[in-house]
Amino acid sequence: MFYEIEDIIFEEKRTDYYMIRNIKTKQLKEVAQAVEVKFAHGAAREWKNRDFQDLSFEILKATKISVSPGTLKRIFGKIKTENDYFPQGSTLDALIQYAEFEWKKDAEIEQDSGGASMNNSKKYLGYLAVFVVIVCVVVWMLFPFTKGTPVEADFELKHVDGINPCTAYFKYFIPETEDSVFIDFGDARKPEHVKTGEGTISHYYEYPGVFHAAVVSRQRKISKKIEIKVLTTGWQSLVYYFKEDDRERYFPLDIYNCSYEGVFYPSVQYLSDVGVDTTKLVLTRLDNYFKTETSGDSFTMNARIKNEGLWSIMRCNTSNIVISGDKGKVQFSFVKPGCSRWLQVRLGEHTESGHSKDLSLLASDFTTLRNVQIINCNKQVELLLDGKKVYSGNYKQSMGKILGVSFIFHGTGAVDYCELKDGNGEVLLQEEF
Predict the structure, then answer these.
(1) Strands (DSSP E) along 218-297, which ranges?
(2) What is the pLDDT of residue 115?
(3) Burial of 299 (0-12, 13-18, 19+ CB in 10 A)
(4) Which of 158, 160, 324, 336 has the lowest tally of Cβ within 10 angstroms?
(5) Fold for domain 154-230?
(6) Sign of torsion over alpha carbons 260, 266, 271, 274
(7) What percent of the chain has pLDDT over 90?
(8) How many CB atoms lie within 10 A of CB 400?
(9) What 3-state DSSP class applies to 125?
(10) What is the distance between the alpha carbons of residues 320 and 234, in angstroms, rounded to a whole number?
């Protein structure tokens, strides 16, 4: 309906086109400025190709929507475009989500009166026409793909081949729709585009955890979520490259050969010996996932960890401890002082980052082994470093049943011991390596 009205407007009064274009350009500029502030890499005019690649990855990680570095360069003026250039609706939606941008409620649109004054009735009609056009443009920009009746897809898990790693086979039926449709497999991979109709698709899960797959459009989830649990048989360690394009190769590490005097520590030399290119940024993880009937909303976790102090291409090495349930997780990250901008905390449905909250108490020197204690008492969570409380918070939605523990390091790191107890003090997991 709007496109028909818009065509009539363009035929009757060409100047309205320029007004609409100016509105869109102004709003895109506001969103871009918000993205620039959130990304915090300085002025966008100074960004290099690597900055745009990093921003593209950050947007994908935060929104599960892929925006290419080339598109970002057009938006920020690094690539010359036509005067009426405007990104696709999904791109705008990804930028808005990433920057946590909110549209101004009382946008003022300046118009040139053109000379002669108007009588009161014409003024009111003019204001009304401008208001209607603005509303239509905003609706068009925010919901460009919601054509036709929303569809619901059938989606089911056929079977799982293997334990860890594993390949899951899904069957789907998607009714005809003008929207683009994808399958989000719930891990770090990009959602995969699929055609409408009936089909079967597989996905390879490289590392342990709890994943929730679903059929999605550009705007919403259009099927039920399917849970896939990838468990381990004891402790398992993997190393892989940070950039997604390099993640076809996951290197399994031998726990025994990585343990020295009771400390799990895959050295840089060991990683190089097993074929890892240590000139690239890598992630090293240590996981133990197993079935329990224990609530994840009350537990005590004790660990002693450290992080490799120096990695060739990264200044802010991050260490992460994750306690996963089948419905949620508790996760803390740690960095050295000065890098608190990159800290993240996740408690169930609640997420905080160093970009929008002062988490600097979690920034500490982890180049030597540090004692970390996480206490969850009925969804009230406290974090202690070497016996000193540095964080407290809470969440509302249950984590479900405890499923496992992960230690994840940018570069590499060490784990001296790990102990996980339930709310009654019963030991669920204990290891001294």
Answers:
(1) 226-230, 236-241, 250-253, 259-260, 263-264, 282-289
(2) 40
(3) buried
(4) 158
(5) Immunoglobulin-like (2.60.40)
(6) positive
(7) 52
(8) 18
(9) helix
(10) 19
Alpha carbons 51 and 244: distance in angstroms, whole number: 16
* pLDDT confidence tier of residue 83, bands split at 50, 70 and 90: low
pLDDT given for residue 308 in this prediction: 82
Handedness of CA 311, 246, 51, 92 (dihedral sign): negative
The residue among 413 and 106 whose pLDDT is bigger is 413
- The string over 225-249, giving b where at least 16 C-beta atoms fall within 10 Å of a residue's C-beta and e elsewhere, is ebebbbbbeebbbbbbbeeeeeeee
Contact in structure between 198 and 173 (CB atoms under 8 Å): yes
| pLDDT value of position 394 | 96
**Interacting residues of 275 by C-beta distance below 8 A, sequence separation 6+:** 251
Q: Which fold has domain 236-431?
A: Jelly Rolls (2.60.120)
**296 Cβ partners below 8 Å, 6+ apart?**
323, 324, 325, 326, 327, 328, 330, 376, 398, 399, 400, 401, 402, 403
Spatial distance between the Cα atoms of 5 and 202, rounded to a whole number of angstroms? 44
CA distance 252 to 13: 66
Domain coordinates in residue numbering, the chain: 2-142, 154-230, 236-431
The verdict on pTM exceeding 0.70 is: no
For residue 410 the two structure tokens come to 């940018």
Q: Which of 170-174, 216-220, 348-352 has the lowest mean pLDDT?
A: 216-220
Residue 364 CA, chain-centre distance (Å), reads 25
Tokens 């690649």 locate to 53
Query: If you average pLDDT over residues 366-387, what whole number do you get?
Result: 96
3-class SS of residue 245: helix
CB 201 within 8 A of CB 192: yes
pLDDT digits (tens, 9 = 90+) for 392-424: 999 999 999 999 999 999 999 999 999 999 999
Per the structure block, which two tokens stand in for 53?
């690649």
**pLDDT surpasses 60 at 280:** yes
Kindly report the number of other CB atoms within 10 A of residue 420's CB atom: 23
User: What CA–CA distances, in Å, run from 357 to 106, 110, 353?
Assistant: 28, 36, 6
Burial of 38 from C-beta contacts in 10 A (0-12 / 13-18 / 19+): buried
Q: Taking a C-beta distance cutoff of 8 angstroms, is the pair 357, 341 a contact? A: no
